């Protein structure tokens, strides 16, 4: 999903269940209005909406936003090209996504272990 080289420049995703649009904006280095625009352009990106139309993103949404960001800003895809790439990746097996999540969890657990050992 998100290549390991991109993880260095973005902050780690906290272990929360839901994130506000402001938090996701900081985690993904993208402004909130861009996130709202991407929701219109990428059907896979569909945060939970609650009272007052407030958006709440889950962990998989944050990972997807990071992937979209990488496609657009770092790999030079257009919105249409990124949309096609994302839809073709949806058709692929989900094992790569799970592997990415497991790698990230292992890295975060190793960080916690280092803190606890100090």
Write a structural description.
There is one protein chain. By secondary structure, the chain is mainly alpha-helical. It has a single domain (4-92), classed as Multidrug-efflux Transporter Regulator, Chain: A, Domain 2, CATH 1.10.1660. The chain has 6 helices and 2 strands; from the N terminus they run αααββααα. It has helices spanning 4-7, 21-28, 32-41, 59-74, 79-91, 95-117; strands at 48-50, 54-56. Strands 1-2 form a two-stranded antiparallel ribbon. β1 and β2 form a beta hairpin. The N and C termini lie far apart (33 Å).
Concise structural overview:
The protein has 118 residues and is mainly alpha-helical.
Count of domains: 1
Give the helix level as a range of percent.
55-70%
**H/E topology pattern:** HHHEEHHH
For the record, what CATH class applies? Mainly Alpha
Q: What's the main sheet like?
A: 2 strands, antiparallel
Rg (C-alpha, Å): 15 Å
Total beta strand runs: 2
* Mean pLDDT across residues: 86
CATH architectural grouping: Orthogonal Bundle
Structural class from helices and strands?
mainly alpha
For the record, give the distance between the C-alpha atoms at the N and C termini, rounded to a whole number: 33 Å
> So how many helices?
6
Instruction: Report the sheet-strand fraction.
Output: 5-15%
What CATH calls the topology is: Multidrug-efflux Transporter Regulator, Chain: A, Domain 2
User: Any idea what the shape is?
Assistant: globular
The spatial strand order of the largest sheet comes to: 1-2
Query: Which spans of ≥5 residues are poorly predicted at pLDDT below 50?
Result: 1-7
